[in-house]
Design brief:
With 339 residues, the protein is an alpha/beta fold. The radius of gyration is 19 Å and the shape is globular.
Length: 339
């Protein structure tokens, strides 16, 4: 369900009418509307990154109507530094706008040494959120996710921890991330029995990674849970930067990333073909890739990263043309399914 929110910020610092310009989509059947594009702080907001640039990106996002900021306990590097930097920026720029923002964090991956700093135990989740709130100078987050399923900890323990976090007022809603359809089904049933508001599943989803289409999206429909897609550009593959070769400073040749040169070579023909369709639509390839995801009714929001404010502004232009003809969709499918 797609709904436009017509409220306006009265802040003198906020861009007038920004909420009219952004599209807001409902999360399942909850009362929460998310901007069609949300800002992920996985990269470019850590302790090794330029603080002023990070601040500029966040301020630009807010002025564009992007009010959802997505973090995790171990975003950085070093671990925790993205939350720490976000807390500083929040305090200095958005302290009077907290109720206009939707802030998320997660726990589930490696965070600190020893047996209690990883996975899905009650001890880890409770302790991690306490640390996250201190780093961000917050009393609560809007949504807290379990970041990945834990094969050793009983699912009931993990879900009860999420339920108690809501009851304690430290999160308004909960979500899960990286769970498959069967795992999600089991988690939703437990949370429903605990009367805990689970509203989002955060899943990796792009033109080049369509695993959610097999079963997960149907499961989310069944349980009225929204999906927020991360890595919508397949770590930068779905851009035009690799069409004429691999630039020396690109993500594919850097360490500390999940994109390898071999992946570029594997997909280059598809990238070129998809780029031609984007050009016909008068879009850039990343804009088309984001719009392609948003056409799905289950997608509440697409999480985008940004290394600069200009890049974020370019991504938001995907909303200028997010309708596809059947012929376009068939042509895109044929490209994606080609060997």
């Amino acid at each position: 369900m797609h709904t436009n929110d017509k409220s306006k910020s009265k802040s003198e610092n906020a861009a007038y009418g920004k909420y009219d310009k952004m599209t807001y989509n409902r999360c399942g059947k909850s009362g929460v509307l998310l901007p069609a594009l949300s800002l992920g702080l996985w990269h470019n907001f850590g302790g090794i990154d330029d603080f002023e640039n990070a601040q500029d990106i966040l301020k630009t996002a807010f002025d564009l109507g992007i009010v959802h900021f997505d973090l995790a306990n171990n975003y950085g590097p070093p671990y925790g530094s993205a939350e720490q930097n976000f807390g500083k920026i929040l305090k200095s720029n958005f302290s009077s706008h907290r109720d206009e923002l939707f802030i998320s964090t997660k726990a589930g991956y490696d965070m600190w040494p020893g047996p209690y700093g990883n996975w899905g135990s009650r001890k880890y989740l409770m302790a991690s959120l306490e640390q996250s709130l201190k780093r961000m100078h917050l009393d609560y987050v809007d949504i807290f996710y379990h970041h990945r399923p834990d094969p050793e900890t009983p699912l009931e323990e993990t879900m009860l921890a999420l339920a108690d976090i809501v009851r304690q007022g430290k999160a308004l809603y909960v979500g899960i991330s990286n769970y498959n359809a069967q795992e999600s089904e089991a988690a939703f049933k437990i949370l429903k029995a605990l009367r805990t508001p689970v509203i989002l599943h955060q899943a990796r989803y792009s033109m080049f990674d369509r695993w959610v289409e097999d079963e997960l999206l149907d499961t989310l429909d069944l349980h009225a849970v929204g999906c927020i897609a991360f890595s919508p550009l397949a770590q930068g593959l779905l851009t035009d930067k690799y069409i004429n070769g691999i630039p020396a400073n690109s993500r594919a040749v850097k360490s500390r990333t999940y994109l390898e040169e071999s992946q570029v070579h594997q997909h280059i023909d598809k990238i070129k073909s998809l780029n031609k369709i984007a050009e016909r639509r008068q879009q850039k390839l990343p804009q088309m890739a984001i719009a392609w995801l948003l056409r799905k009714p289950q997608i509440s929001s697409v999480l985008v990263g940004a290394s600069s404010s200009n890049q974020l502004k370019e991504n938001v232009k995907s909303l200028d043309n997010n309708a596809f003809s059947k012929d376009e969709l068939d042509e895109i499918d044929a490209i994606l399914k080609s060997s």
